[in-house]
């Protein structure tokens, strides 16, 4: 709560004959969190916003100041500066892209406000500009997906087939794009697959569809589409089907995706998405755990990666190996889908 408001409340309560001490105590208990969210571009993002809002609720002892940046970094810079002015207790930032944060984070540091980065990372010259980060290992997600594709093609007797892959990328410069694209590019080199086109779909269904339409017009040999999130996959599937081609295990094109949102896994159940690699959006409780530790004066981990699963249409590939570590692949069923938290 703003100091000015506290003073005003104190004055009012004194006039009303209330105990100033009680007002102070109530104010002290409420933790004010300013959250700068990327936008509302995808189902993943909606689940993430919902997780943050339900965690940082009034009932749980928080005042959440939520700002939707509509995928624009300049809006996030303004939001953070407003949070500093409002003297929030914590700033939580889900950064749209990795770069361009040094100045504003220095301003938060100078104001003595801890900053917790969530989901995508920031690339800053000085790590002390933020207190902690929690999110996914996006490159590992890409590597797991590609190891799955290699094992799947082998198992289907397609190991020697010419693979012509297109990559519908996420927002350029976002950690989720950088990591997933890297995972793909390294694997394509290793396995000898052709990346015939690569373009951003901005993590949205509309852009995913538009990009896929134009890629299909330019290339008639595409047999794998690597979508960097579920919403792009929905758009890509629509574009493929509208062009008279088929998706699925016996179709013309295999569609791969990330996020494992409810709608994404519903498409995995039907085979439209052949393999969906999880990216868990339920960061609210994780951020809260960090804040609670900080409130108690405890140390927090600087970077914490979330454990994530993989789901596929069938059980052709039961597990994949990346850097000598095995990761299970689960065949999606309606029962599993019904129990998912997002
Ligand atoms: O994959 C996508 C969202 O940064 C992990 O952003 C997040 C990504 C997620 O728009 O759906």
Short description:
This protein is an alpha/beta fold. It is built from 12 helices and 15 strands.
Topology, element by element:
Elements: H1 3-15, H2 20-29, E1 31-37, H3 43-55, E2 62-68, H4 73-85, E3 90-93, H5 102-110, E4 115-118, E5 132-135, H6 138-155, E6 164-169, H7 175-191, E7 194-200, H8 205-218, E8 224-227, H9 230-242, E9 254-259, H10 262-270, E10 275-278, H11 284-295, E11 303-305, E12 310-312, E13 319-322, E14 325-328, E15 330-331, H12 334-339
Parallel strand pairs: 1-2, 1-3, 3-4, 4-5, 5-11, 6-7, 6-8, 8-9, 9-10, 12-15
Antiparallel strand pairs: 10-12, 13-14
The protein binds beta-D-fucofuranose.
The end-to-end span amounts to 32 Å
**Biggest sheet features:** 7 strands, mixed
Query: Based on helices, strands and strand pairing, what is the structural class?
Result: alpha/beta
Report low-confidence residues grouped into runs of 5 or more: 1-10, 17-26
DSSP strand tally: 15
Strand numbers in spatial order across the main sheet: 7-6-8-9-10-12-15
N to C succession of SSEs: HHEHEHEHEEHEHEHEHEHEHEEEEEH
């Amino acid at each position: 709560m703003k100091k000015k408001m506290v003073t005003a409340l104190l004055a009012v309560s004194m006039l009303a004959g209330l105990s100033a001490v009680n007002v102070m105590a109530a104010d002290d208990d409420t933790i004010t969190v300013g959250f700068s969210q990327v936008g509302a571009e995808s189902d993943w993002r909606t689940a993430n916003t919902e997780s943050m809002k339900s965690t940082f609720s009034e009932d749980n002892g928080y005042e959440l100041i939520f700002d939707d940046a509509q995928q624009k970094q300049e809006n996030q810079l303004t939001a953070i500066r407003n949070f500093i002015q409002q003297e929030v207790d914590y700033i939580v930032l889900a950064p749209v892209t990795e770069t361009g944060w040094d100045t504003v984070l220095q301003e938060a540091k100078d104001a003595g406000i801890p900053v917790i980065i969530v989901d995508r990372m920031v690339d800053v010259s000085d790590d002390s500009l933020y207190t902690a980060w929690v999110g996914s290992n996006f490159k590992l997600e890409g590597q797991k997906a590609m190891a799955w594709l290699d094992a799947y093609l082998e198992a289907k007797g397609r190991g020697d087939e010419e693979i012509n892959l297109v990559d519908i990328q996420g927002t350029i410069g976002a950690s989720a794009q950088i990591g997933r694209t890297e995972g793909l590019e390294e694997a394509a080199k290793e396995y000898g697959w052709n990346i015939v086109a690569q373009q951003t779909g901005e993590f949205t269904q509309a852009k995913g569809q538009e990009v896929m339409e134009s890629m299909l017009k330019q290339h008639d040999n595409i047999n794998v589409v690597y979508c960097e999130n579920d919403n792009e996959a929905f758009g890509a599937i629509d574009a493929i089907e509208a062009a008279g081609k088929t998706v699925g295990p016996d179709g013309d094109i295999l569609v791969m995706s990330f996020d494992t949102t409810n709608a994404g896994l519903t498409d995995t159940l039907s085979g439209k998405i052949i393999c969906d690699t999880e990216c868990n959006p339920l960061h609210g409780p994780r951020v809260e755990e960090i804040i609670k530790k900080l409130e108690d004066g405890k140390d927090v981990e600087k970077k914490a990666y979330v454990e994530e699963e993989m789901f596929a249409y069938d059980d052709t590939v039961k597990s994949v190996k990346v850097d000598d570590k095995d990761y299970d692949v689960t065949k999606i069923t309606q029962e599993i889908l019904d129990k998912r938290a997002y």
